[in-house]
Amino acid sequence: MDVTSSFTTLLVEDSMSLGALYTEFLRADGAQVTHVNHGEDALNELKLRQPDLLVLDIQLPDMSGMDILEAVQKDYPNITVIMITAHGTIDLAVDAMRSGAFDFLVKPFDAKRLSITVRNALKQRQLVNLVAKYESSLPKPHFMGFVGESLAMQTVYKTIDCVANSKASAFIVGESGTGKEVCAHAIHNAGNRKDGPFVALNCASIPKDLIESEIFGHTKGAFTGAVANRDGAATQAHNGTLFLDEICEMDLELQSKLLRFIQTGVFQRVGGTKEEKVDVRFVSATNRMPWDEVKAGRFREDLFYRLHVIPIELPPLRVRGKDILLLATNLLKEYNKEEGKSFKGFSREAKDCLKGYSWPGNVRQLQNVIRQVVVLNDSETVELAMLPVQLTTELESTSVSQSNLAQSFNSKTEAYQRAEDINANNSEATHASAFIGNIEQGAFVIPKAAEAVVPKADSGQIEPLWLTEKRTIENAIERCDGNVPKAAALLDISASTIYRKRQTWEELENSLSH
Fold this sequence. Notes:
alpha/beta; five-stranded parallel sheet; 18 strands; about 50% helix; about 15% strand
């Protein structure tokens, strides 16, 4: 807030004459002033509206200003408070400042003294707001149960912040193990329904014949085994959030009943005739592509539009780059505590393996791997040999593939060099042409897709291998319109590999420029 602009002030002063005087002082500085004489009136006014500044007398007829200060710090911490009193002591001033007051003025004071204090208070308020705004723009390594500071996760966090207080339905999409239920909890806990119930229902784990009862409840005698009335998830989630996990597994017949419930908030229990109405915020999730399910006829299009209002896509772990080690470190600390172990970190080889693995099971698989390491080993450092065999096997396979590719490339280079030597002799040009043709019919042929991606270097120019690699990868990303995961898939590498190589290239370019 600009300190020269108008600001709102609540003045709490029991003396009518002093109250009128201080009001004029404040208005001269641009304040919109509300004056009350009693502490109870001040608390009631704060419930209606919160001012930028609170000028508070300590000695009030009905209560102490210190009690009001304590209530303000608890319920309205963003309000800046200036304490005033005619009975000032050093101890009282210290107590007020420790309790959260910005400054402490002893009566009598003139307009200039009050003006300077008010302006300083507003400048500090402006600075605090700027710092808070800056901090909110920084990457968050932790957010509502999530761990991760990659750009992909920061986007998820911002979306959750934006939609948390809305009643609009959210639809979470992501591979198994990416944290869809964590995301649903985050939406609930970040919003104005956080004090209400959060009810989760896995549509894939409940038999078709029972899922309607699980959602809407049933009456006594509705079916065999229904010995009493039972509330369903819809009733339990009243004034809260209903999370429908694996929504695409729901039977088509039940989807039509769910559609009416979402539209009206009204439902009937199984076996009942009475309509009930609840206030529920819907959050759904699936590991499938919902629109593909609609096109295949397995998911109702009208239900899709009702639920898919706010789409949230959770990225797979393999594209989250440095989040892999951040998650692994956090999990190591957590399981250390649970198992009474003393691991402090990962060896370089173990880190490289974790970063290079494709993680088909995503965060859930990483949790499994780290817990297995902690339970089965006792050391200070997680070594490569401690990791499960499927991680190290994939790492070895990748190394072998790269080695084979390099050998094939070298063989092809030598063959072309031989062909060029033959071509230098005009009498053997025909043989050279046939020789090159035979090479291209062999095992190492550059695919057409790769030819389109790999840019041609100037003839006769030799450059560092990393520059060739950099140009190839950046050209692939450009052809994929900046979509790194798509480019990585076409290049047959992981997106995290591209991010790591970009960092390495930047370091190399910086070192060369100095």
